[in-house]
Write the structure tokens for this entry.
Amino acid sequence: MADMTSTADAPRSPGRPRSIRADEAIIEATLDLLAEGSTIEALSIEAIAARAGVGKATIYRRWAGKDALLLDALRRLKGVMAQPAGHSVRDDLVLLVGAIGKNVDPRAAKIMPCLAPAVNRSADQFQLYQNIISPRRQLMREVLRRGIDEGVLRADIDVEVTMALLTGPMLIQRVLQWNPDLDEQSLPDRVVDAVLEGIRAR
Amino acid sequence: MADMTSTADAPRSPGRPRSIRADEAIIEATLDLLAEGSTIEALSIEAIAARAGVGKATIYRRWAGKDALLLDALRRLKGVMAQPAGHSVRDDLVLLVGAIGKNVDPRAAKIMPCLAPAVNRSADQFQLYQNIISPRRQLMREVLRRGIDEGVLRADIDVEVTMALLTGPMLIQRVLQWNPDLDEQSLPDRVVDAVLEGIRAR
DNA sequence: ACGTTACGAGTCTGACCCGTATCGTATTTC
DNA sequence: GAAATACGATACGGGTCAGACTCGTAACGT
């Protein structure tokens, strides 16, 4: 919604105001269609309009094209981030790892894989993607730093690599179904413990 | 090439035989177009035919449609797997981790992200994907088991989770560009060492 | 020589889609 | 009530593509 009404000193333009219900319906229809399996490029304005029960013109009146609409729709999707409790570093990490790809909106899990190809093709889409995940990375970074400060974690660990270590397994499992034999539900606990302990004999 | 000539007791059908050069050209054109950034669904038979210097009928004579062609093309792509030397478990793991998404065919890296959405939509495509990666998982599994047998790795580790731990970070970085600040080149070493040592203070 | 099959190139029909324009209608301000 | 703007619906021209088809030609067996 880059250029919608809103601004404070609204001169209250004449004529019929834009329907908020239409706004919602369009965004929802977009996310629904994506979650139902449509890929980004297979998604058509016509299909969105039909699903939303809206004329095409109503969409074009609000957004310049499919990309602009998608940008807004995905922004709506990201939902709230998990909030670590701050008691146990291990428990906080398990919480964060378990939250990967498991947004409040259940459609998110279905939509994420669709973004993978887009991410490498357009700088804009890459930026959008980073805007969503980088605050989550920051959250994990803070927990790890806290662990170091508290002496629970070693001071010489590579925090960035550790984040990838924790995030990677969950992400490939949720997004890519990497290993069908891996139980997704217990994975956060097992990943965190394995990363904590290491695998070398000692 | 599900139903091509080949079979032993070939009755040697009359008429002009199919051109092997056309076969190659079609497959190559398909992989090239994908590697150049075309998504799977944006890929059209017409474009492939034009690129391969081939008539559309020549493609339809061989494959039922885009899906069948893609299936064959991707089978060609998988290339050879890295072969661990077998001396040091750590070095073997670094080799395997470094090989993730880095097939002999340089086009593979570009194509992999395009597969992510497809994997969750069709059982066939999921199977194809698993056929490619499961032998690689097996290779890593064997190295880990060897490590346990040799006493380099603890006997109580969860091998499957450990594989995810090693694979995940590399995969999200190569395929999803998860963290732009992470140096991809040194990542295999750092991931393997981090997994070996763990991060808990001791 | 002749039948058979493949070849590259091209045509044709029917989809589907984009983005714009135009209906008649509804809702708001002045 | 009049002007302005929104609405859903639909039509339009322009585009791409799937598949089936047709050419004239090329390569193979007998």
User: Anything to note?
Assistant: Chain B is about 60% helix and 0% strand. Residues 12-17, 19, 44-47, 56-57, 60, 65-66 of chain B lie near DNA strand D (CB under 10 Å from a C1').
